[in-house]
Specification:
Aminopeptidase; 7 helices; 4-stranded antiparallel β-sheet; 14 strands; 244 residues; single chain; alpha+beta
Length: 244
């Protein structure tokens, strides 16, 4: 007998979008495979889709479906076996002494939105996201039908320095999106990943899903710097060789 999740899974449909400019590799066009109807995807189905290389953006769940390009590779870090290298450990200790962490549900906060805009305007100027209004921000980051959380990172003076959105899975976490003070010193984005790995470890969960690793993109190549990790190839999660 099939489980309720399996029964609903058979009612999902998968649509491929029209081509659009790739956000990571200049001059290329991208396409995505999107799950519909989105309202049928609960936490259990979402776990299964993550295992198959899908990601979430608001209520949309998608994965790359480019015909001639396979640059986007799903990647996950083994949180139970992860060991920080010297640089990561130094960053971890310094940031732990400087930042105070608050974990809670997704919610609107004007300070979050202002920080998000500053981050986009400095780090992703001209992307279109640097002109997002509150409704677009809410649709992108605060709409979710799965088990999502928002993590705030404040300095000792109470100033908001970083916000991370993550989805809780049966087997770990999916790092959805992180934005931070673009003028702050230190590698805040790297620290957010280290914090989520530690959160997985404390919960005795094995995997932190980091979305897509793109070796040719400086914005995404850093994800392979967390070891050990696995990548999804031909429907199977494998441990890559030393070249990765």
């Amino acid at each position: 007998m099939s489980t309720p999740h399996e029964s609903v899974f058979r009612h999902l449909q998968f649509y491929v979008t029209a081509p659009y400019p790739c956000s990571y590799l200049p001059g290329r066009m991208a396409r995505s495979e999107v799950v519909a109807p989105a309202h049928l995807v609960d936490a259990g189905l979402y776990d299964r889709l993550i295992e198959q290389g899908f990601r979430r953006s608001g209520l949309f769940i998608y994965r790359p479906a480019c015909q001639t390009c396979k640059a986007c590779v799903p990647i996950r870090v083994d949180a139970r076996r992860f060991v920080r290298n010297r640089t990561q450990d130094k960053l971890w200790r310094r940031m732990n002494a400087q930042l105070q962490v608050r974990l809670g549900p997704l919610h609107w906060d004007e300070a979050h939105f202002r920080l998000y805009l500053r981050y986009q305007q400095v780090r992703h100027r001209g992307s279109g996201m640097d002109e997002d209004d509150p409704a677009q921000y809410t649709q992108f980051l605060l709409n979710s039908q799965v088990r999502s959380s928002l993590v705030e990172f404040h300095d000792p003076d109470g100033i908001l320095r970083m916000v991370a959105i993550m989805d809780r899975l049966d087997q770990g976490l999916s790092a959805v999106y992180t934005f931070y003070d673009p003028d702050a010193h230190g590698s805040l984005g790297t620290y957010a990943i280290l914090w989520q790995l530690e959160y997985c470890r404390q919960r005795r969960q094995p995997w932190l899903y980091l979305g897509y690793w793109i070796a040719q993109s400086p914005k995404m190549a850093y994800k392979a710097g967390f070891h050990p990790h696995q990548i999804l190839q031909d429907g199977r999660w494998i441990t890559p060789g030393p070249s990765h």
